[in-house]
C-alpha cells in the first residue's frame, strides 16, 4: 500500500500582499475537476484573521456552554444533531449567518468575501446573479479526539456502484470550502475519487481505516482556503489537543436539483434565512456592492423552501 502524501497551498503571491484577489494559478475549476480539491494560500489580511479568531472563540464558548443551540455534538457525525452539548461536548458550531448569532455581520463579511465570491464564480463559471447562498458553519477543536468515517457527503455508503456513478456524473452545482483560522491538518482526501465509484479496496475498508490507497492529508496554514468536491472520498480526524477554528461554507447555483436542496436544507438554514439582511455589506465586487449580491443570493436560498421534509443525506442516524 502506498504511503499517504501531503498537500500544501499552491504557489502564489506572498501571503497577505493581495488578500482579496485569489491566485489565477492553478485553474480552479480544472483542479477541482481533476483532483477533487484545490488549496489556495491565505486570502485574509492579518486584521481579518485576528477579528475572526476573536469572534469564533466567543461563539465557540457559547456553544460549549449550552448558550447556542445550533451545534455539532460528539460523537454524532451527520445531521440532525441535538441542541445541547451533552457529556461528550461538541465539534462544530452551526449557522454563522443566523441573525441571532453574535458577530453575524463579521461572519457574513467573511462568507461574502471578494476572494471567496471570485473563486466560487470561477469554479462554477457563474455570474453574481447565478449564485445562491447555502451553508456557513464553524468546525472547532473537539472536546475529545474524534474521527469521521470515510464518506462522500451526499452519497450513502450503501450506494451501489451504478448509483455512485450516476450521482457522480451530475454537473457541478455548488462549491464547498474550508477556511482555516489556525493551522489545520484535519482533512484527508483520496484525489480523483470524486470522478469514479469506490474501488473494491475502498468498499471493503473499515469505516475508520487508518490508510487508504492514494490518500492525502491537506495541510492548511492559517488563512488558507481549500475548495473541494463534497463527494470526494474523505474523512476528518480531529484532536482535542490542537486548536481549531475552520470556517466551513458552501455556495451554489440557482436551480431545482433535489439532491443539492436536501444537502443544504437538512441543516435547518431554511428556517431562518428569511430574517437575514445582508444589504449593509459595503465592499464592491465585479462592479456591484456585495450587499446587493448577498441579498440576491439570500433570496435564492429562500426560494429553495424551508426544508421540513427533505430527509437526510446520510440517513440521520450516525
From TrEMBL:
Residues 1-29 are annotated as: Disordered. Gene3D superfamilies: q2cbj1_9rhob like domain (2.60.120.620). Signal peptide: none annotated. Residues 1-10 have a biased composition (Low complexity). It comes from the Eukaryota. InterPro entries: Phytyl_CoA_dOase-like. This is Phytanoyl-CoA dioxygenase family protein. It comes from Elsinoe australis. The lineage of its organism: Eukaryota, Fungi, Dikarya, Ascomycota, Pezizomycotina.
Amino acid at each position: 500500500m502506498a504511503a499517504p502524501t501531503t498537500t500544501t497551498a499552491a504557489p502564489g503571491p506572498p501571503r497577505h500582499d493581495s488578500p482579496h484577489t485569489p491566485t489565477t494559478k492553478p485553474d480552479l475549476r480544472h483542479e477541482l475537476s481533476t483532483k477533487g480539491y484545490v488549496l489556495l494560500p491565505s486570502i485574509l489580511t492579518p486584521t481579518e484573521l485576528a477579528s475572526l479568531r476573536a469572534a469564533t472563540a466567543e461563539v465557540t464558548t457559547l456553544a460549549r456552554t449550552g448558550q447556542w443551540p445550533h451545534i455539532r455534538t460528539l460523537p454524532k457525525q451527520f445531521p440532525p444533531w441535538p441542541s445541547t452539548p451533552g457529556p461528550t461536548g461538541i465539534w462544530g458550531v452551526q449557522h454563522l449567518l443566523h441573525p441571532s448569532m453574535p458577530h453575524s455581520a463579521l461572519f457574513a463579511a467573511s462568507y461574502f468575501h471578494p476572494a471567496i465570491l471570485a473563486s466560487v464564480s470561477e469554479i462554477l463559471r457563474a455570474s453574481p446573479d447565478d449564485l445562491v447562498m447555502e451553508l456557513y458553519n464553524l468546525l472547532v477543536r473537539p472536546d475529545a479526539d474524534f474521527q469521521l468515517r470515510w464518506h462522500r457527503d451526499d452519497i450513502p455508503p450503501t450506494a451501489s456502484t451504478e448509483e455512485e456513478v450516476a450521482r457522480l456524473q451530475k454537473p457541478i452545482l455548488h462549491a464547498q470550502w474550508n477556511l482555516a483560522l489556525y493551522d489545520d491538518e484535519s482533512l484527508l482526501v483520496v484525489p480523483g475519487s470524486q470522478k469514479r465509484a469506490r474501488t473494491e479496496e475502498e468498499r471493503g475498508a473499515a469505516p475508520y481505516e487508518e490508510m487508504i490507497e492514494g490518500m492525502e492529508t491537506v495541510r492548511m496554514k492559517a488563512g488558507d482556503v481549500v475548495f473541494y468536491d463534497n463527494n470526494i472520498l474523505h474523512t476528518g480526524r480531529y484532536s482535542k489537543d490542537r486548536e481549531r477554528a475552520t470556517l466551513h461554507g458552501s455556495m451554489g447555483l440557482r436551480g431545482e436539483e433535489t439532491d443539492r436542496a436536501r444537502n443544504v436544507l437538512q441543516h435547518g438554514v431554511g428556517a431562518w434565512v428569511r430574517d437575514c439582511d445582508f444589504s449593509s455589506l459595503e465592499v464592491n465586487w465585479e462592479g456591484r456592492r456585495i450587499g446587493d449580491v448577498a441579498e440576491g443570493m439570500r433570496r435564492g436560498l429562500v426560494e429553495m423552501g424551508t426544508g421540513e421534509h427533505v430527509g437526510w443525506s446520510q440517513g440521520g442516524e450516525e
